[in-house]
Amino acid sequence: MADGVAGLKDEISQLPRENHHLEVVREFQDGPHVITQSEGLIGGQGVFFDIFRFEDGLMVEHWVFSALAAPPNDSGHTQTDGPTAAKHGQDTEKNKSIVRDYYETIHISGEHGKIPQYFHGDYCVRHEPGVRDGVAAFTSDLKELIKNRSIDAIKFLFAQGDFVFIAAEGSVGGEPCAYVDLYRVESEKIVERWGFSERIPPREQWRNNNGMF
Predict the structure, then answer these.
(1) Three-state secondary structure of 39-100
(2) Phi and psi of 6, rounded to 5°?
(3) Is there a contact between 185 and 141 (Cβ–Cβ < 8 Å)?
(4) Would you say 162 and 86 are in contact if contact means Cβ atoms under 8 Å apart?
(5) Angle CA(44)–CA(47)–CA(52) in degrees, nearest 5?
(6) Which of 189, 199, 161, 205 is CA-nearest to residue 67?
(7) What 3-state class would DSSP assign to 109?
(8) What is the rounded distance in angstroms from the CA atom of residue 177 to the CA atom of residue 127?
(9) What is the DSSP-derived secondary structure letter of residue 200?
(10) What is the pLDDT of residues 84-111, one digit of tens each?
């Protein structure tokens, strides 16, 4: 998308007037940032994570990550089902710290032997396509995923209550890639995860100079 309000108007003008809809499934706020997860029909059925940054009550910056919609996974979960409202009574900063430590330890440093310390036994509700619930299943899947991918650095970390959102930069098959994850935390353990990866287009395809992060 081209930069500025003009770029936004141009993008919207190209959307079809019919068979086009978008529904926000869950949203939460961390300081000036609002994070939404949505699903809908925009050039094909898809799921989306958006980050909006506000100043003086007005939107000044926007990031979006998207993936194609998929059927329910082997445990019957879709990419967007599950709890939709953050539990505000939870310790946001504590949960943010837990997920940051988990992500840096497991996904960036690759210390997979420490996976059990972040979960309640085998309990983990997973919303990725083609997977099934449980920490054992996640650990098995991860062994295959790391053969072709790397996650190098956390770029965004936002939270409210039990919801913690991470966007990270890495690669798949040597090509630049963004990883987006939304975690839900209960009693200081990860209990649920939504998310996907998205390839970052080559520089010559960009219509602005801002980068995906």
Answers:
(1) EEECCCEEEEEEEEEEECCEEEEEEEEEEECCCCCCCCCCCCCCCCCCCCCCCHHHHHHHHH
(2) -65, -40
(3) no
(4) yes
(5) 120
(6) 199
(7) coil
(8) 20
(9) P
(10) 999 988 999 999 999 999 999 999 999 9
Residues with Cβ within 8 Å of 42's Cβ and at least 6 positions away in sequence, in order, are: 15, 20, 22
How is residue 14 written in tokens?
């190209």
Among candidates 37, 14, 10, which has minimal Cα distance to 26? 37
pLDDT value, residue 43: 65
Which residue in this structure is represented by tokens 């939270």? Answer: 159
| DSSP summary character for residue 148 | S
Rounded to two decimals, the pTM is: 0.92
Q: Which tens digit of pLDDT belongs to each residue from 46-69?
A: 999 999 999 999 999 999 999 999
Evaluate whether 212 touches 1 at the Cβ level (below 8 Å).
no
